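In response to reviewer comment 3 from the previous cycle, which asked for concrete evidence that the modeling workflow produces usable outputs, we include below a single protein chain processed end to end. The sequence was submitted unchanged, and the resulting C-alpha cells are shown without manual editing.
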Amino acid sequence: MTLMRTASLMLCMVALVGTAGAQTAWTPAQSPGTTSPDNTGVHVAQPLAAERHTVSGTVIPFSEVTLRAQSGGRVIAVEGVEGDRFEAEEELVAISDDRLQAQRQAALAEMRTTEAAIREARMQYDREVISPRSQDIGQMPGMGMPSMFDQMFTRNMGQFMGFGDPTLDRTTDLFSRHIGVDQARARWEQARARVEELDVALEDTRSRAPFDGVIMHKHVEQGDTVQPGHPLVTFGHLDYLRVEAAVPVRLVRQLDVGDIVPVTLDGHAEEVSARVSRIFPLADPQRHTVTVKFDLPQEVRGGPGMYAEVHLPGEVTREDRVVIPESAIIPGGALPRVAVLDADDEVRIRMVRLGASRDGGVVVTSGLEPGARVLRHPGGRH
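The workflow returned the following C-alpha cells.
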C-alpha cells in the first residue's frame, strides 16, 4: 500500500510540473471530446485606450471688446441696456463735443483766411509776369524828366559798365512772387489738416458697435464725466460661443487646431462636440497650463460665464498594453496567469504582468498582445 501511495504522489507531481509552463496545453472544465470553450466565453484583448481627462473652462463670446472713451467730456447718451442687440456701426455712447465744435469753427475760419491769401499771392505773381516791378518807372528815383533820364541813360550806362543785371532782377522778382503763392498754399493745407484732425476727434466722441452683437455690460450712465481711456461698454458677438480652458502642458501635446473634443456645459446633461479653434503659444509659468479655445456648435443654448467641462484625451499609451476582465486571471499561483486560445483553438497558459485596475478590468503591461483571445472564466468558473 505504501508503495502504491508513493507512486500516485509522484504521478501527481509530474502532472503539476507539466502545467507550469508559460504556454503549455491546458484543458479547462469542458465536456469530454471538446478542444475549446464556447466563443461566448472568449474575450479579445483590446489595446489600452488613452485615459480621458477633464479640465474646467468658461463659456466666452466668439468676440468681445471693451469700448473706451477717446476724449474727455460728459456722457450725453447711452443707447440700450445689457442684452440689447445692435448692428455694426450703430451708435452706442455719445460724449459732449461743444469744445471740439468751437475749435473746428476756428479752423474753418483759418482756412478761409488762407484761401484769401492764396488769391492775393497769385494776383501779385500775375502782376509781376505782366508788369515787371524792375521796369516800373515809379520805382526809380527822381520824378519826371530825371526819372526818364535815369531809365534811358543811367541804367543802360551802369549795365554797360558792369553795374546791375536787369535779367537777374527780373528772375528774382518772379521767384519771390512764386514763393509767396507756395507759402499761402501751405498755410491753407495746414488749416485743412487741422479741420480733418478735429473731424476725427468729433467722430471719436461717438462710440459705435464694431460688429453685430449685444451689450454685455455698461460701465457708464448718461451724465457721467469721463476721461480718455475710461471704459464705456463691453460689447460681444454671441451668435457663436466658445469655451476657454487652461489645459495642462502634458495634455496640450495631444491637441491640434481642428480637433473635435466632447464638452459638458453646466445645466446640460448631454455632451456636445467642440472644435479646437486656438492654442496659445505660451504657457503660464506659474500654473504650467496653456490657454486653449474651443468653438461650440451654433445651436448650443448658453451664455458667457457658464461653467464648462472639457474632456481631453490623455497621453498616448504603449501599444503592447491591453485590458482584460479580472475574471480571466487564473486564481492561485505565484505569478498571474491567463488562458489563451492559439491559432488551432488550443488553450495555452501564459504568464502576464498586471497593472492597475480599470472599470471592472485589469491592465496587462506585458505577456499579451492586442487581439489575443483570452478565456473569460478559465477552469469553468462562471
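Residues 166-204 form the longest helix (39 residues). We consider this sufficient to address the reviewer's concern, and the full set will be provided in the supplementary archive.
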